[in-house]
Amino acid sequence: MERANPVLEVRRGTKRFPGVLALDDVSFGLMPGEVHALVGENGAGKSTLIKVLTGVYQPDEGEVLFQNEEVSFSSPKESQAAGISTIYQEVNLIPLLSVAQNIFLGREPRNRLGLIDVPRMNREAREVLERYSIEADPKAPLTSLSLGLPQMVAITRAVSIDARAVIMDEPTSSLEAREVETLFGVIRQLKEAGIGVIYVSHRMGELYEICDSVTVLRDGKLVHSGPLSELSKLELVSLMLGRELDEVQKKGATSFGEEERASGGEPILEARDLTELPLLRGVSLDVRPGEILGLAGLLGAGRTETAKAIFGAGQLDAGSVKVGGREIRTGSPAAAIKAGIAFLPEDRKSEGIIPDLSVRENIVAAALPRLSRAGLVSEKAQDEVVERFMQSLGIKASGPDQPVRELSGGNQQKVMLARWLCMDPKVLILDEPTRGIDVGAKAEIQKLVDDLARDGLGVVFISSELEEVVEGSDRAIALREGAVVGVLSGDEVSERNLMGMLAEGGAEGGATDGKPENGKPENGKQENGGTP
Amino acid sequence: MSGGTAAGGRSLGRAGVAPWLRDRGVYVAFVLLLVFNLIVTENFASIGTLTNLLVQVSPVLLVSLGLALVIGTEGIDLSVGAIMALASAALPLYLGYGWPVAIGLSLFVGIAAGLVNGSLVAFAGVQPIVATLALLVAGRGLAQIFTNGQLLIVTDPVVLALGQARPFGIPAPVIVATVAVAVVAFLIRRTTFGRYVVAIGGNRSASFLSGHPVRRTLLAVYAISGLLAAVAGIVATARLGASDPSNVGVLIELSAITAVVVGGTPLTGGRIRLAGTVMGALLMQLISTTFISNNLPFTWAQVLTAGIILIAVYVQKGRGAA
């Protein structure tokens, strides 16, 4: 390992935030001419590590070394001047300036009078663009470029700085396949020039195509570091999710019931070909009354987008949704709610609770139309509903008048559940319902979901914890890069099978573009999945 | 002493002062200034002075009510003064067909202007400050075109009564404003519309995902603001006995926004303090009255107002950090 010296290194780096250990004693080294994958799920510490490397944060403990010298960058500007170039996920360019101006922003070539030498800047920009085979006019304003090209310009900007290390944070998330190829061409050139590249992505195929080594973070800790070729996709996914390969125990730590629920009959929810490019590419799914359908996928696989598409909160390019056999208007949450769909969003704080309003007002938010007559809210009906659900869900608050922002995460989540359960929904879509709440509340919510399905609700259950998906679901769908890559049912629903599908996808084709078929999925077992 | 403990057992000590000041400060300031006037200002403690205060505050109050709704959705309406001018200019145009037509047209102009604002905000996605700025700039000019830049005398007795009559000794503008306060209070407290307004201001995504008609509500809010501005314009015209679009409602948007904010409604929306808004409008009027009746330079009244705005905004900011 220690043959050559890393160009950029963190030794035993630790970074704390109030209440969180974001980076816990992590060592990381980037070799010259190496493409190093940095992977991990939400909250794993990837961003924190990058920010420590680039001087956005200073580590509380440990040291950062750049070209064998200990450094302490106090800002990203300093690290950039030293030769560490970063491409962020959100493109940070100036839309109204030209391509060349963006590439040379802040380091424009000057003429003798100290003014910007525009012809030279355009010429040099053209050279850089040509060197990396990027087709863009240096003089064109950035806004005139098609989606994806600005990202390429950002990359050009980054590599045209005399960098020794380049950090790419999900560079392909807005790129088309062809552009990804161009990017990989750029990366290979960087490699040949002896520049180290840190590559953050969740797309397994890309990682294995371009990366030499990999570092896996989880909950702020280093869980693995080594050559990527020594690791199968399945092993990598299991490292990211923190699930042992042979850990296929059923009844585990979650509070889902064990015995089968009686689910059957006609599907209560049928979604077909939900398409919202580039996030969703024709997702179809069915849910029967009394059934919990698990939705698994790595970050960015399209779980939340699928949920939102069904609920009408996304802008669909194509697709249809039927509830109880009746097609509903897409693109309107109000229509979805009316048809009996309820949706608990993943981001409780920004999309769920209305923080300054009371528990009461939050609970009845969705039910207002049915609690009103001629536009007047019936206080009596409202208080009845609020009391009933505060009691049945055990919402701990000083009273219905308490602002919901003062409640604990678990109780806020119960308020959200109450908002939807008081609507008597037919279909309940839960996006990460147990994230960010304490263990007790988590168990309560899991049990509640189980009970609801028993009462005949169709439930779509999204979780990034595979254990939860496996124990909760009657059937499970694996999503990868916006498409269904496999459907599992009954005993096939296991962590091993799911991980296999998340890692490899349904290479055999069957489930990738087909409708989910009850009972016998074509591509149930991960062993079938080959490398594309 | 710590008034914070009185505000609620949950927040004690320093953290409690800001919310207390936010919720009650405007009342305290009003009472203090009232007492000051009772002691210092000559002839202040008379019915005449007090009714005069109420009459003068009526247009600002009417406009503030609409703004309270708009600000509740995390919006702003800068065009209220211009809408007053438009409504005022429209009033005498068809007065020949009788007062119902004239007033109806005037109100219609206000609603239409509000709908333009609302459409820009709700459907075109224009930022409220920009959307309403357009009308702020264009509205008064348009009003002057209506009237050829002249002052038009209004002689219709019914219209004049709206500004000058005193049934049971209560000036008509005060009655109009009181009715408007009651209607808006009802809207906010009892209707689903009122709930939508604060939900949109409190968390627009959550409101949308709860199935609320976000766009329709925004449209309605700006239309109501336009309507109330038109009412204010009619009242102001009636008091004056003439339509004077170049002077009616000039800079009233600033007084109204101040009244709303000082009254405890945060500019970030999600909550509407209607009683506070009423009190805020009264406070602003009392400040002017105090300076005028004591022959103090009016510029100092503006400095004092600015100070009060700063305190109000600071106090609300304190809440955000907590």
What descriptive keywords fit this protein?
heterodimer; A: 532 residues; alpha/beta; 18 helices; 32% helix; globular; disordered C terminus; B: 322 residues; mainly alpha; two-stranded antiparallel sheet; 14 helices; disordered N terminus
Characterise this structure.
The complex is a heterodimer of chains A (532) and B (322). Chain A has 532 residues and is of the alpha/beta class. Chain A is 32% helix and 23% strand. Chain A has 18 helices and 22 strands. Chain A has helices at residues 46-54, 76-82, 99-103, 118-131, 149-160, 177-192, 204-210, 233-241, 303-311, 333-339, 348-352, 359-363, 379-392, 409-421, 439-454, 466-472, 495-504, 510-513; strands at residues 8-17, 20-30, 35-39, 61-66, 69-71, 84-87, 165-169, 196-200, 213-218, 221-227, 269-276, 280-287, 292-297, 318-323, 326-328, 341-344, 372-373, 376-377, 427-431, 458-462, 475-480, 483-489. In chain A, strand 7 (165-169), helix 6 and strand 8 (196-200) form a beta-alpha-beta unit. Mean pLDDT of chain A is 83; it is low at 247-252 and 506-532. Chain B is mainly alpha-helical. In chain B, strands 1-2 form a two-stranded antiparallel ribbon. Chain B is globular, with a radius of gyration of 20 Å. Chain B starts with a helix and ends with a helix.
